[in-house]
Amino acid sequence: MSNEKIQEVYAAVEAGKAKKVPAAVQEALDAGCDPTAILNEGMIAAMDSVGAKFKAGEIFVPEMLVAARAMKKGVDVLKPHLASGEANAAGKIIIGTVAGDLHDIGKNLVAMMMESAGFEVIDLGVDVPKEKFVETYEANPDTKIVACSALLTTTMPSLKETVAALNAAPFRSQIKVMVGGAPITQAFADEIGADAYTEDAASAAQKAKELAGC
Ligand code: B1M
């Protein structure tokens, strides 16, 4: 029964039904589905399917965009059920998707999970120039972690440049630099000199707590 409800979320996100997704997520919650399962098996899995169809030339950018909008509506409903932490107690985090990259769903999930873990999150959005990460730290020197997302293989060099700019900054020893996104690996994170790589939003929040000494 609850699996059926998650399948309905999956189908609505995959089809980009922005009006239907919030109701489908609510129904899945009401049926007792685990919020994390709704997110992973319903919404993220649907986006993977959308990505595979795009790659196969079955759908195009507008359809990806519509699915992304639908997913965001669903995340709004899910957010209070995933959030749990004490607000702002763990410290400050700066987060953004690197220059040239417009994908924000994964980054938004990471930001949301970090907020849930008790961090105050300064979200710089997408297509963030490396200088902006540095300037934002300078304006917020109590920041503990700078977190950067890259979702395209073509923006991995941009992530490298961003981390290099942070590594060259005089405040480098005061912060931890976290990186992530679908094409990123632990090996790449090590190569570019980041402090931590995590695969998904939940482990990013967990790692952030560890790095901040919470
Ligand atoms: Co684009 N896109 N897209 N896209 N898009 C992908 C990423 C792609 C894999 C699709 C495919 O071909 N199969 C492919 C990249 C291929 C590659 O890199 N080799 C791709 C492409 C090619 C493109 C364009 C180039 C298409 C074009 O224009 N021809 C273009 C690039 C635009 C740009 O950025 N400059 C483009 C555009 C778009 C849209 C704007 C239409 C839209 C984004 C809308 C938005 O984000 N608001 C879009 C979408 C929706 C996708 C897919 C379908 C879904 C992305 C998504 O939201 N996934 C995607 C296919 C896919 O992912 N399977 C695809 C769900 C999200 C939860 O996952 O973002 O991976 P993800 O986040 C994960 C982890 O990566 C991790 O946590 C999250 C889960 O818990 N994570 C972190 C993320 N950040 C982290 C940071 C951390 C730790 C973990 O620490 C700091």
CATH class of the largest domain: Alpha Beta
**Spatial extent as radius of gyration:** 17 Å
Small molecules bound in the structure, each named once: CO-5-methoxybenzimidazolylcobamide
CATH fold description of the largest domain:
Rossmann fold
Number of domains: 2
Along the chain, the helix and strand elements come as: HHHHEHEHEHEHEH
Main beta-sheet strand count, sense and barrel state: 5 strands, parallel
CATH superfamily label of the largest domain: Cobalamin-binding domain
Structural class: alpha/beta
Assembly state: single chain
Strand content: 5-15%
Low-pLDDT ranges: none
Averaged pLDDT, please? Answer: 94
Please explain how this structure is put together.
The chain is α/β, with parallel strands linked by helices. It has two domains: 2-86, Methionine synthase domain (Methyltransferase, Methionine Synthase (B12-binding Domains), Chain A, domain 1), CATH 1.10.1240; 90-211, Cobalamin-binding domain (Rossmann fold), CATH 3.40.50. It has nine helices and five strands. The protein has helices at 2-14, 20-30, 35-55, 61-82, 105-116, 130-139, 156-168, 186-192, 201-211, and strands at residues 91-97, 119-123, 143-149, 176-180, 196-197. It has a five-stranded parallel beta sheet, with helices on both faces. α3 (35-55) runs antiparallel to α4 and α4 (61-82) packs parallel to α5. The termini are far apart. The model has no long low-confidence stretch (mean pLDDT 94). CO-5-methoxybenzimidazolylcobamide binds at residues 44, 47-48, 50-51, 54-55, 61, 64-65, 67-68, 100-107, 109-110, 147-149, 151-153, 178-183, 198, 200-201, 204.
